[in-house]
Amino acid sequence: MKERPIRVLIAKAGLDGHDRGAKVVAQALRDAGMEVIYTGLRQTPEMVVKAALEEDVDAVGLSLHSGAHMTLFPRVLALLREAGLGHVLLTGGGILPAEDIEALRAQGVGELFGPGTPTTSLASYIRAEVARRRGSQA
Amino acid sequence: MSDLEAIRRGDRRAVAQALSAVESGRARGADLLDALAGSLGRARRIGVTGPPGAGKSTLVAGLVAGWREAGAKVAVVAVDPTSPFSGGALLGDRHRLGREASQDDGVFFRSFASRGARGGLSRAAPAALDLLDAAGFAVLLVETVGVGQTEIEVMASADSVAVVLSPESGDAVQAMKAGLIEIADVLCVNKGDREGADALAGALGAMLDLKPDLAWRPPVVVTRAEEPMGARPLAEALAAHEAWLGAEGRLALRRRRGTEARLRALFAELASERLLAGAEEVLAREAEAVLAGRRSVVRAAERAVAEVLS
After folding, report:
1. Do B169 and B302 have their domain in common?
2. Do the chains contact at B88 and A35, CB–CB below 8 Å?
3. pLDDT for residue B74 is more than 70
4. Is the pLDDT of residue B26 over 50?
5. What is the pLDDT of residue B230?
6. For a FRET experiment, which of A119, B89, B248, B283 has its CA 20 to 30 Å from that of B112?
């Protein structure tokens, strides 16, 4: 049996309306052979986690430019764990100061990417991290 | 198996993971479905199909809102195509669901990628509906794009099929060519405010007039899915079809036919897998014969089948 394609949820959390980056990432991950569920703008953490649960994804990518990352990432992470989805990789990108990234990573958030990241490195990061997590789950 | 109890209770995480097993054709999925075989048949199953961009997802969102208002738990399986180049897929139907349904635990929405013609969608999508039926959802919706053999097979497992067109999707002749009319229980012309919508609806009606002996004449409805309550004419037409099915044992007959069609398709698939597994040598020999000009491909295939089965 062929291995199941990696499934990724791409969501825009927070109130800003800048979704071009999220769409570019969604397409790039599709082109890297992943199944990408795109949920669009202004997703609350609850909506993101409900979607992650129903779609049985391996990873959630949050895009945000609103400055609310220090509340939104931890909230999504907490809700994922609460829903029994602690194995799901939470990653993302936006304009994020280095010290914030460090603090979020310490809480259990995955790699976070800033502007100018080549989409290929996103895809290879997700592929490697999901493979590692699938391996440790089995 | 405690998974079974969780699925029957409608536990959303258990259902989601079971759907993955069913979708990938894993043995666990088949085992679960087998164990749930006695809990099926309660849900109403609706198929929505049509060309890309006609507004299917937006209409589905409108239908979901209507059933939720009536208190029914709803599950949606939305299928988008897998890229034949990368094997990846961009699944964007969930995007149209709207805020309310996106936060409502009475709505379960799952996106499927078609995973290519050999990806088993025609098997996986109806099986996914079986699972959601056993999980206690009262209304199941399956949404697919367009009209390949696979989509037609998926639609055969629905109690009612709505075909959605828009003025942009071409004239009635395009719909005839694509074979969409034949599978429709309801014909829906969406984007009803655009030029050509009424003309398309009229042409579809005229085509149906040429088939006076239909037991059920598919109603042609015009919708504006973007507007509040815009899906209502479609919901009403589906309800009318449901009422019609409810009489004279029609629903039971339709489900019997659907089951027979699914069984037939699966039989063909399994049989061909088994035959192929033992056919390598014979096929290699027959290919040589064709290349050497001793017989046609068709005759060679006939001989190979006869030999493998002998």
Report:
1. no
2. yes
3. yes
4. yes
5. 92
6. A119
Q: Among residues B196, B228, B248, which one ends one of the domains?
A: B248
Q: How confident is the model at residue B211 (pLDDT cuts 50, 70, 90)?
A: confident
A1 confidence band (pLDDT: 50, 70, 90): very low
The reply to whether residue A4 touches residue B115, judged by beta carbons under 8 angstroms, is no
Give the pLDDT of residue B237: 98
Would you list the domain boundaries of chain A? 7-137
Which has the closest alpha carbon to A76: A16, A13, A23?
A13
pLDDT score of B10:
94
Q: Where do runs of H (alpha helix) occur along B41-120?
A: 56-69, 99-102
Q: Given CB atoms, is A134 within the 8 Å cutoff of chain B?
A: no
**Global ipTM:** 0.92
Q: Are residues B143 and B285 in the same domain?
A: no
Q: What is the pLDDT of residues B288-301, one digit of tens each?
A: 999 999 999 999 99
In total, how many domains does chain B have?
A: 2
> Could you tell me the fold of the domain covering A7-137?
Rossmann fold (3.40.50)
**Residue found under tokens 């990846």:** B88
List all residues of chain B from 14 to 33 with a beta carbon under 8 Å from chain A.
Answer: 16-17, 19-20, 23-26
Q: Does one domain contain both B222 and B77?
A: yes
Amino acid at site B198: D
Residue in A108, A2, A7 with CA at minimum distance from that of residue A53: A7
Q: B 230-269 residues with CB below 8 A of A?
A: none
**B128 part of a folded domain:** yes
Quick check: B106 contacting A, CB < 8 Å? no
Question: For residues B67 and B162, is the Cβ–Cβ distance under 8 A?
Answer: no
Instruction: Compute the nearest-CA separation of A99 from chain B (Å).
Output: 33
pLDDT (mean) for A80-106: 94
B113:A32 CB<8 A: no
Torsion sign over Cα B17, B98, B88, B74? positive
CB-based contact, A51 to chain B, within 8 Å: yes
Question: Cα dist. B172→A15, A46, B189, B203, B223 in Å?
Answer: 43, 43, 11, 6, 17
Q: Is the CB of A54 inside 8 Å of chain B's CB atoms?
A: yes
With a threshold of 0.95, does the pTM exceed it? no
Residue B256 lies in a domain: no
Strands (E), chain A: 7-12, 35-38, 59-64, 89-94, 112-113
Last residue of a domain, one of B248, B265, B299: B248
Nearest to A30 among B17, B23, B90 (CB): B90
In a domain, B1, yes or no: no
